[in-house]
Design a protein that fits this description.
Number of helices: 13
Distance between the termini: 32 Å
Oligomer: single chain
Helix content: 25-40%
Radius of gyration: 21 Å
CATH architecture of the largest domain: Alpha-Beta Barrel
CATH topology of the largest domain: TIM Barrel
Strand content: 15-25%
Bound molecules: zinc ion
CATH superfamily of the largest domain: Metal-dependent hydrolases
Largest sheet: 9 strands, mixed
Length: about 450
Amino acid sequence: MKADTVIKNCTIARHDGTVHAGIAVKDGKIAAVCADEMLPDASRVIDAKGGYVIPGCIDPHVHVDWPEWDFTEGTVSTTKAAAAGGVTTIINHLSGPGSLVDIFEERKAAIERSSIVDAAFHIGIFSLAQVGQIEEVAALGVSSFKFFLPYRGTEVVPPLVGIDDGIVYAGFETIARLTRPARALVHAENVEIFFMLKERVLATGRGDEAGWDEVRPEVCEIDGIRRVITFCEHTGCPAYIVHISTGEGAEAVRDAKARGVDIVGETCPQYLTLSEEDVDRTLGKVNPPIRRNREHSKRLWELLASGGLDCIGSDHAPCAKKHKKEFWDAYVGVAGIQTLLPVMLSEGVNRGRIPLTKLVEITSYNTARTFGLYPKKGAIEVGGDADLVLLDMEKTQTVRSERLHHISDFSLFEGKKLTGWPVLTMVRGNVVMEEGEVTKEAGGGRFVPRPAR
Ligand SMILES: [Zn+2]
């Protein structure tokens, strides 16, 4: 056999350990993992010089077009940022009024024209009519359905309609009954407490000093997560809680798992590493809020390390400064896909909070298993896709927004010096980033359907 590419002299980090070996890639797949001497001839030989190679990160929490970008433009810039940041698969949110099948077909075509990395989808459910379309969409290879609990009342985003708990419960019942594996994703926050607190703060006349964490406090998330767990227990629906920002919320997920509930918990780099005091209050406005109390970050790291939490997502929502001029009216959301891996390497692995094997587990292996992408994705195993990232654990670089490829013009990590960066990214055997330079302008990525079993 002649391989397309071999990577020699690498330390392969998997979720269950590290091994010094070489990797051969042929036709986009991993053809061999073996001692360097046993590697076949290849058109290209990459010398990892002893460095770590990990499975490409899977970012399960991406909104390429939020808040108002063209989908194709958002896909190109987001997936350039993904390639630069060592992310080889995105799971992007789709939502819209009307037929979910039509939205799916249109977006799938756009992904296959423009995405640089591979992509799967979550679909947002906002009405009973859309609950009725879940089975049809699941048959197309989409097996995760998102319920945005706080998008009701004055928080509705037109043309979508507001959700309510009856729709959520009916959605859970439907997903639980599907014959193929599927999962409910939930943004879990009680928004009515926020409506009341916002009015209370504005009535005092101190709107200019209020913080987002003050008006959307921890209790909103903790109540939302506990309610979702109750729905899971009563319907048997498997769930995934996105962007957990509080220690208590994460503990509720951990405890539910211990009782046998099929539930998975995600947190994001911003909740692990930032306090509200570290960010501009308007640019840093996200839901749930970045917490003021740093104890939450500490607790989230501990729960990741101990298996209480399972996955890392960026919640990439590439708002620009123009979308965030005034505090109360500012769109929520920040870009984060390109900094996900460097922040986790620098603040997690290099600071001794998690080992590299755990990083692999929470950035690819668990994510692939949760969303039906394993063993095609999420592992370095013969027969799997050659989605690989070579790391330089000693490289130190300061985050500058002009180096970030996404469409947003700021980063919450601007000016932060990080140690540990991806230096080469490969998607199905194709090098898409080398030495920090993205080598593709657009295209090459594929839609990845979730298998029936
Ligand atoms: Zn999100």
